[in-house]
Write a structure and sequence with these properties.
elongated; 133 residues
């Protein structure tokens, strides 16, 4: 979403972009997606012969899912919210504020890493590369 900030010339526009990103991630995509993945995992684990930890690829998926939810909640979401609050307070000057830039950098770096790990997890889900324990 950082491409949306290219050419921003107004503090209200910057705040609007940050608050929109925060709203979509918090209330539409992230929370419902994470809960959906968790519930689906529980259903598959309970009602199929796969179980919770019977296969290494399932154990990997549980670890990644729980870690992603916790990391997103306690780090990515906080950085994103801070960017929204700072841009609401400082307007366009937020683009030169060290706290704003730090939050943006951390969100970009670790958000990209988390996305890569989740894409790898999709690969693991499809191809199930590890044998049964």
């Amino acid at each position: 979403m950082y491409f949306l900030k290219q050419g921003v010339s107004d503090g209200g526009e910057l705040y609007g972009i940050n608050s929109s990103i925060h709203f979509i991630d918090t209330y539409i995509v992230v929370i419902f997606g994470a809960i959906g993945c968790l519930i689906t995992g529980f259903i598959y684990s309970i009602f199929t012969n796969w179980g919770f930890f019977k296969h290494r690829w399932l154990t990997f998926k549980w670890v990644v899912t729980i870690t992603a939810i916790l990391f997103g909640t306690f780090y990515l979401g906080v950085w994103e919210k801070n960017m929204m609050l700072i841009s609401g307070k400082l307007g366009i000057a937020a683009l030169t504020d060290t706290a704003y830039l730090y939050n943006q950098k951390m969100n970009l770096i670790f958000g990209s890493i988390q996305n890569g790990i989740i894409i790898f997890t999709i690969y693991v889900s499809v191809f199930k590369p590890w044998k049964k324990k």
